[in-house]
Amino acid sequence: MANTQKVMTLADTAQLIAKVHANAAKGVRFEYDSTKGEYGNIAAYFAAHKDGKVYGVKFPKYTYSNTPTGVKTRDNANLTIEISTNDKAGRDDYSALNAFRTWDVNATVDDDGIPHVTAIDGIDTRFKRDGSNGDVYVMTCPGYYKLDSTSTHNEFLYSDTQYDGYAPLPGVLLPDGSKRPCLLFAKYAASLDSQQRPLSVSGKEIDREFGSQNRAIDYALKKGKGYAGRCAGDTFYVQLMLMLKYATKNSDVLGGCWQYTQQTAVTKAETGVKRVIIATSAANNFDVGSTVNVGTDKERNNTDNYSAARARTILSKTNLDAGNTALNLDGDAITTTTACFVNTMPWKTGATDKLLGTDGRPSTAFAADHQPIRLQGIELFNGIYESDADLIANAVKDRDDLGRIELYRVFDITKASKTSTANYTKIGEFAARDKTTNDSWRYAEDFTLSNGVIIPTGLTATSATGMCDAIGANPLTSQGLRQVLRFGSLGDGVRCGAFAAYLRNDLAARWWTIGGRLSALGRTKA
Fold this sequence. Notes:
This protein is mainly beta. Helix content is 10%, strand content 33%. The strands form eleven sheets. A six-stranded antiparallel β-barrel has the order 15-17-20-19-18-22. Strands 29-32-35-34-25-36 form a six-stranded mixed beta sheet. A five-stranded antiparallel beta sheet has the order 4-3-9-8-10, with helices on one face. It is globular and about 85 Å long.
């Protein structure tokens, strides 16, 4: 007879324990479903490995102290992270923790926005970085965060468990309110295939044709309704991880290709070679592993800038004599003349693939501001802006001496627009500009947090105080809808970083300094 009373018998208890153990067992390790061609227990895995710890970092508000340095709190208090290079693995107390652990995976996103993980690096042999098994993402657990504020401090809290008052990371919730089994972040900035579909794969030139809000909408849709260009969820995760792991708002702690604009003349013409010869005195300005164009035009946006070679990796250098050094290049043989110049370009994707840890930059032999970095397994700061697809800035002139920038977000990328904010939610404004601050970069002092977006505030900080990054805007000079461009390009210097934003380009603007990134988080709940 069934037990109908509101008490648990020993048999009931035994059945419940067995059920709990069975469910937990389903998540002990990732399990591949060969009939579906994907891992079928991703959600169960993360549920089984939850530890409930809370990781915090507390920063002073700018009015209390302008330092960008914070203090790690809660379960974060005694954790240490050291950056890794291609030659050395730094100490990393985070890599094994469920809330921070990452995997490189191949995955797809269906039209409803649901991720499907088809291969996991280190677990199966199907995983590939080169695109032969699909896009490469960094997978991590669905996380939850909270911002506690006092009159003097802001404290971010983060956990793999949703406690009262904690919000899901932007992108955890699908439009219907259900949860994604995992979060996927494109490991690499976007290249394009022959059909102009954006990719996240290693070893490719970051494509400038994907580099606008408009193109992000059009080209991502070629892959399906679940795909998007870079979204707010992608940006917030990077910013939060920087703050939690390094207790700073200054991404210079890791580096980034912000100051690498070298150009030099070719000193000897050659035919059918895989190298380019330049003055030995200039050779030290070009780093092994970086990317160059060779051509007759020094303007990087023009086709003659790469008339001899486009997006080539410097493999090594050979000193020929006191006056000449060869940069040995990958790819097919080229022909050069003394009318050519060698021009540094944004690093190709995969520049950080050889790192011996989760976070870091390739080499200590080269300047930190010449190199891309990796944070939480995600390759970043290759020397090119990344356009947001789900944000629109609106430049407004209130009077002759006062303007502002409104910020709008669309939560479901299928409702994104190239001409209007009608389907968008206004989530805040950037600091107002007057005639003394218009048409300029100004360093943000602090931030507000709205709808999963960190919005910098204030204009009077420096590259070493406050947010340490700058906002570029010109609402008095030019009004209308503008792109939100993230991070910075290879010539913009210390104003670049995780919190920087350039707000002066219209929604269709493209240039060699602007790239994009695929996002798996475009369809999300407001």
